[in-house]
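Field: COMPLEX_INPUT
Field: COMPONENT_COUNT = three
Field: RESIDUE_TOTAL = 603
Field: MODE = joint
Values follow.
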Amino acid sequence: MKATGLALGLLCGAALLAAQGVVIAPHAVFIDARTRSGAVLLYNPNTEPVEVAVSFFFGYPATDSAGRIVVDSIRRPDSTSVSAAGWLQAFPRRLTVPPLERQTIRLLATPPAGLADGEYWARLVISAKGGQLPVTGVADTARVKVGLTLEVRTIIGVYYRKGAVRTGVALSGLRTAVVGDSLALWARVTQQGNAAYIGTAHAVLTDSTGKTLSEMKAPIGVYYTMEPRYALVIGALAPGRYRLRFDLSTGREDLAPELVLPSPPVRDSVEVRVP
Amino acid sequence: MSRLPHAGLLLLGLLVPRRGMPQSVGGSVGIDANVIGQALTVTTLSNLNFGSVPRGVATTVQPTAAGAGAWQIQGSKNADVSMAFVLPAVLTNIQALPGSTMPISFGATSARWNRATNNVAGATAFNPIAGATGKLGPPANPFIYLWIGGTVSPAAATKPGVYTGTIIVTIAYL
Amino acid sequence: MRGLRYAFVLTATAFMPLAGQRPLTVTGIQSLTFGTLLPGMPSVVSRTDAVKSGRFDLGGPHDTQGQVTFTLPSVLTGPAGATLPLSFGGSDAGYSQSQNIGSQVGFDPKQPFLITFSGQGRGSIFLGGTARPAPIQRAGSYTGTITLNLTAFP
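Field: COMPLEX_OUTPUT
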């Protein structure tokens, strides 16, 4: 039998796919109870239209045993949870974004009567499918045109705020370990108040003279209690004693200042001994 | 009496408009803009492409190969994102009679991700079935790059034609 | 009698309206508004955009000329001192004697421009521009000011 090559039309053919993606902003949507509405902007930078579908679920970042941050998805939140997923709607839920155009998705909250003051959360899923792509390497394509679909799902946070909302974070259990050319650090952080703590984690390693040897900053969202792991690149440190300072503050560059709930910074430090 | 005409001429002289210094005035308006907040963009850079495969022989595309699927994720610098996949178990022949399928599988190192740098050789391998969490790059390069390969296993009697499927990549901002 | 004639002439002269004394005015009517911007995505406002373009109304002696110059910012200023680049192209400004946004003569706002007031001594300037937020642009509100100087030559 002639070994017939099979043209595999999985996700298109040999030609490099033109860059395809939908720009989604902001990456966090804050809805005030007075307006009960928010918006997400989509921009299609491509030359083909993109089909978009929107849905909600309840979930929030948490950490696993290794300190990695993951999204905990709660399929059936109970009545005491702070889930907003059941009463958030998106308009439209399905749309096509033409090439090089922007479209707005409006979010509307219809919370239950008597909702207590506080912040309620949901995750917004934005699924984007690009245009149909041709398949190459097929012997007879004269009358058969095949389109392949690629799908990208982006998940962002939605925060509904009612009444007096306040936030804070408690910091404890700061510890470090030298791992290869990095200094790993862990801290136990616990949300306080009735709103998620949205801020920035900052770590600085200094030597005995106070000189900064390594530094890192990263956005953080604390919803309950978590123990995130961070890493500072330190290279080959000379034996001796160093100081790691770790602080959490509510300053964020990627969110408009008026959206971030203020809270006093918290900080801690530990000695790092390199044998 | 003769002073009256002189006074009149003087008054006229005072009242006649004079050519002199140009007048200048100014006014201003504001300019305003509102930057909505950091955007998140997931861009498909290339498709997973197996090309032509022989019947009865499993064919693998490594995530490091030119035929691997690739994505670029751009967002807030140093932010954590999770990366997960919904993967097909079979591909369907869209030219033959219904029911013509081909298995596809993904292994423990079928995917890779790299922070900030579009370099698969230095990327971290992971199992796309399990997913991974990574940190977007620093200010100059707030990216994560993602690659995926896989293995197709056409049976010896697999019908010729085009086999298709869909891979869904899910990026969650944490 | 002759004195009375002179007095009458003087009085008439005193009350005669004098050409060139209509005051020059520049009134800022509408801000240049870029609205919501995505980081990394340039945003253009056309001078013919009735909602977003900037507008100045000018007043001066009818049918006379004046020279318009702008002081244009190169950036907008935002949270924590962040700046957002701004640019103006060769046709981002327009002048309309009829004060009608649909009837403008385009000009480069970076260069002086000679305008002629209408028969009623009026005119309007419309202004567009381009905002260029960086991909890592800090989120928040950004503002700036455009100043228009009008010089008339009586």
